[in-house]
Amino acid sequence: MPDLDGFNSAPPDQLRPLLTECLAVPRWVDAVLAGRPYPDVDALLAASDRFADLSDAEVRAAIGSHPRIGEKARGGGVSAKWSADEQSGVTASLADRLLAANAAYEDRFGHLYLVCATGLTGEQMLGDLTARMENPPDVELRVVSRELAKIAALRLRKVLA
Predict the structure, then answer these.
(1) Phi and psi of 113, rounded to 5°?
(2) Tens digit of pLDDT for each residue in 36-61?
(3) How far is residue 56 from each of residues 59, 63, 131, 152, measured CA to CA in Å?
(4) Which of 18, 63, 65, 144 is 20 to 30 A from 56, comparing alpha carbons?
(5) Percent of the chain with pLDDT strictly greater than 90
(6) What is the DSSP track for the chain?
(7) How far apart are CA 99 and CA 106, in angstroms?
(8) Is residue 88 a contact partner of residue 69, using CB atoms and an 8 Å limit?
(9) CB contact burial 95-134 (16+ within 10 A = b; e otherwise)
(10) CB–CB of 37/8 below 8 Å?
(11) pLDDT tens-digit profile of 95-118?
């Protein structure tokens, strides 16, 4: 993985797959690439956040690249490892409760529940999911968009680590 200098100088085709693992939105990937060179990591993260003003269609598409909370990512690759690390707060004892809560959420909103899980316990995620069930669908989609932006920033830091 490149440091910031490597990120700034790498060919776009080399970075595109890594950026797509951060946030699977082609417009965001293109904007982050076009914004190079970044003077520091904070500037990169600020640009990432600015470009992460996602349309509803982009949010729905990006959700599809994430596993359900409590499930392992399908396939391999760096995003599967990142997802496992991010969801490390989920314990086996919560599996059935999370499965049921995910199903109810998906029935209500038509997409899977997404949260920036790093640093959260399984109980905290379950509480967040339960609280968000009260959101109107349009509000919930904006919440998911913000969570995607948080995940993208977290993963960008990992790209540069």
Answers:
(1) -70, 135
(2) 999 999 999 999 999 999 999 999 99
(3) 5, 11, 21, 17
(4) 18
(5) 70
(6) ---HHHHHHS-HHHHHHHHHHH---HHHHHHHHHTPPPSSHHHHHHHHHHHT---HHHHHHHHTTSPPTTSPPSS-SHHHHHHHHHTTT--GGGHHHHHHHHHHHHHHHSS------TT--HHHHHHHHHHHTTS-HHHHHHHHHHHHHHHHHHHHHHHH-
(7) 11
(8) no
(9) eeebeebbeebeeebebbbbbbbeebebeebbebbeebee
(10) yes
(11) 788 888 999 999 999 999 999 988
Two tokens, residue 45: 């993260």
Average pLDDT of the segment spanning 111-138: 93
- 93 Cβ partners below 8 Å, 6+ apart? none
Residue 81's CB: how many other CB atoms inside 10 A? 13
Q: Quick one: tokens of 66?
A: 């994430």
Q: Which amino acid is at 13?
A: D
May I ask the CATH architecture of the domain 4-160? Answer: Orthogonal Bundle (1.10)
Lowest mean pLDDT among 31-35, 90-94, 123-127, 139-143: 90-94
Angle 27-133-62 (CA atoms, 0-180°, nearest 5)?
Answer: 15
